[in-house]
Write a structure and sequence with these properties.
Rossmann fold, about 15% strand, alpha/beta, flat, about 525 residues, 19 helices, HslU, 4 domains
Length: about 525
């Protein structure tokens, strides 16, 4: 297409959707910056042989692919200078956004963020998005009504490998609230050897304490930085140094010229790790008493020699501990846990016994369900930091339910998980999207890993379609493990390349459909004969 001074119409490698995107870039070979670019989907496939492909950076979110100007058969670009004069203003790789306050996350925003990493499952995404938004809505209510509004807990049902656990992982990075993910199989009934379900809330509170400390340290960042600088200058110049001497060293310190110089730093005596291990069965009161005893035993300070680079971090930790009192941190953490805490219980179907297989109570199944009832319904859990009320903690449970049905859960537990969301199995088209749409998809990960060895890996679109087809076929004929099958298939295809990567430095390795069929021939020929074994 012809290049104009105001707009450029170009093509991008995409997953097959029609998109209109705004992108900021600068073209050195134009006399003015271009700030509006129209993209139109052109499915040419990853790594397809083209006359030239120019990588661009983007300020917008396009899932899964580098944005690229493509000139190939039937497409030309006219310009005053060659294409290498193109300058990128922003990298195409985008990191996960930092956690945001609930007031900044609308349900649509949450779904958009989840779409960047998870294919399909719109129902589950919407249910989670609404539940998270309701947390913020409840805080806007009058105090009397606020206490009456309880969270609507969620039960996600779907086969393995369709995105249940991935939704939990992404929520943890997305929300700025206490969050914990646990496996239901790790717990046993109270009185039996194993973890008590009350430990879930204790661990959630510890996560909340870390979260509150991080927030407070950000607020005190400037104050701590000033103190650290003065403390280091005291060690370098002494307390009675002249202002001129102190300021000259301050300038050197800010320029980074003194980072390797050693100074003495006074720091508190640290406890030796693993001095005493206390089981989960110990009461919070016992744990608190023992913790106080060892705190007294290890009181005191010591001077240690370290570089200024190391001392800066050590002094920051010491000063932050002085400014952030345990009482205020604990109070805020308990409040955050009670009002905004989120617990994700994975593999809940593994503590469920099928209705046609009853052989008495089991401490690892029905016993755990009984212990979860008061936790989810709302109760006060004793911790070494204080009591935590679980009335307003949001619980999200998930399970594949292969061997049993959701109705096999205890009726009381079913009632405490009122919102049911069914996640669908993955089709061949879904598997192809998983390879292309998510921002940091599996193919992209392998490309970047091999790039560290100097190997340029190119995977054609035909190869991606063949990989998706093979994964779908194996899932149907052997065992359906969803998107996890793609890991197996890709590792089989790239096994030789990964092994020989150090010897392929500077070379380009192209994976096409023929390579895929050749690498996976054995996998396709083998038949699961286990059903015929007597």
């Amino acid at each position: 297409k012809k290049v104009s001074m105001k707009n450029i119409i170009i093509f991008i490698l995409s997953a097959g959707r029609e998109d209109l995107v705004k992108l900021e870039l600068r073209l050195d070979w134009l006399s003015m910056p271009v700030t509006r670019v129209m993209f139109r989907t052109f499915c040419v496939g990853w790594g397809t042989s083209l006359r030239s492909v120019w990588a661009l950076g983007s300020t917008s979110r396009i899932p899964g692919r580098f944005l690229s100007i493509v000139t190939g058969e039937g497409a030309t670009v006219s310009s005053a200078k060659p294409p290498d004069a193109l300058v990128v203003t922003n990298g195409a790789v985008q990191a996960d956004p930092p956690p945001r306050e609930a007031s900044q996350l609308t349900p649509r925003d949450i779904v958009v963020e989840l779409d960047r990493h998870i294919v399909g499952q719109a129902g589950a995404k919407r249910a989670v998005a609404v539940a998270l938004r309701n947390r913020w809505r409840r805080h806007q209510l009058p105090e009397g009504l606020r206490d009456e509004v309880l969270p609507k807990n969620i039960l996600m049902i779907g086969p393995t490998g369709v995105g249940k656990t991935e939704i939990a992982r992404r929520i943890a990075k997305l929300v700025d609230a206490p969050f914990i993910k646990v496996e239901a199989t790790k717990f046993t009934e109270v009185g039996f050897h194993g973890r008590d379900v009350d430990q879930i809330i204790r661990d959630l509170l510890e996560n909340a304490i870390l979260l509150v400390k991080q927030k407070q340290r950000k607020l005190l960042k400037d104050q701590i930085a000033t103190f650290v600088e003065e403390k280091i200058l005291d060690e370098i110049t002494g307390f009675q140094s002249r202002n001129e001497t102190r300021e000259s060293f301050r300038n050197l310190l800010r320029k980074g010229a003194l980072e390797d110089r050693e100074i003495d730093v006074e720091e508190p005596v640290r406890a030796k790790p693993n001095v005493l291990q206390i089981g989960d069965m110990a009461s919070p009161d016992v744990i608190s008493r023992i913790d106080k005893f060892f705190t007294v035993q290890r009181s005191g300070t010591q001077r240690r020699k370290m570089t200024i680079r190391e001392a800066r971090q050590a002094i920051e930790e010491i000063e932050a501990d002085k400014l952030l009192t345990d009482e205020s941190i604990t109070k805020q953490a308990i409040e955050a846990t009670e009002q905004d805490g989120i617990v994700f219980i994975d593999e809940i179907d593994k503590i469920c016994t099928p209705s046609n297989y009853r052989h008495g109570a089991d401490a690892s199944s029905e016993g755990v369900q009984r212990d979860l009832l008061p936790l989810i319904e709302g109760s006060s859990i004793a911790t070494k930091r204080g009591n935590v009320n679980t009335d307003h903690i949001l619980f999200i449970a998930s399970g594949a339910f292969h061997q049993c049905k959701p109705s096999d859960l205890m009726a009381e537990l079913q009632g405490r998980l009122p919102i049911r969301v069914e996640l669908k199995g993955l089709s061949e088209g879904d598997l192809y999207k998983i390879l292309t749409v998510p921002q940091n998809n599996l193919v992209r990960q392998h490309i970047e890993l091999l790039a560290t060895e100097g190997v340029n890996l190119v995977v054609t679109d035909a190869a991606l379609q063949e990989i998706a087809a093979v994964a779908a076929e194996v899932n149907m004929t052997v065992e359906n493990i969803g998107a996890r099958r793609l890991h197996t298939v890709l590792e089989r295809i790239l096994e030789d390349t990964s092994f020989n990567a150090p010897d392929l430095k500077g070379q380009t390795v192209t994976i096409d459909a023929a390579n895929v069929k050749g690498s996976l021939g054995d996998m396709l020929l083998k038949t699961d004969l286990s059903k015929f074994v007597l």
